[in-house]
Specification:
By secondary structure, this protein is of the alpha+beta class. The protein has 3 helices and 7 strands. Strand 3 and strand 4 form a beta hairpin. The radius of gyration is 15 Å and the shape is globular.
Length: about 150
């Protein structure tokens, strides 16, 4: 049984796509004020905000449980408005051998499309696909959008 998987979901936002990208690249530590019920804290552990190789530590609530994730910024593509995070520690690695999250913003006129991509390898065949985590990311996206439309 193949344990590797990929999940992609798109969500349209009415807020500025460039600002959304900047938040995930340079200011993820501001997300806790935009989605406080989901993201409690984001700290920089190594490097500088917005640079490849930097290490970010997230405290979040998912499925009613407080969780953590330590991620390395693996790639940034400013032209494509894309940031890729590789999970290196935390709750996700209790279920997955590898977990990579990419957030991409496509800006075309007034329509901005945020695409979340998960690429992962499950530790066992019993592990479910990360559907509720994807729902979580969409909720956080909508919270950020709402914050910027105020």
């Amino acid at each position: 049984m193949d344990r590797s998987g990929k999940m992609v979901r798109e969500v349209e936002i009415k807020s500025d796509g460039d600002v959304f990208h900047e938040i995930f690249r340079y200011r993820p530590h501001h997300i806790s004020t935009m989605s406080p019920g989901n993201i409690q804290n984001v700290d920089l552990h190594e490097g500088d905000w917005g640079t490849v190789g930097s290490v970010i530590f997230w405290n979040y609530t998912h499925d009613g449980k407080e969780k953590t994730a330590k991620e390395v910024i693996e790639a940034i593509d400013e032209e494509k408005k894309l940031v890729t995070f590789k999970v290196v520690e935390g709750d996700l690695l209790q279920l997955y051998k590898t977990f990579v999250i990419t957030v991409h913003v496509d800006t075309k006129g007034e329509n901005n499309l945020v695409t979340w991509t998960f690429e992962y390898e499950k530790l066992s065949g019993d592990v479910e696909d990360p559907t509720t985590l994807m729902d979580f990311c969409i909720t956080v996206t909508k919270d950020i959008e709402t914050h910027h439309l105020k």
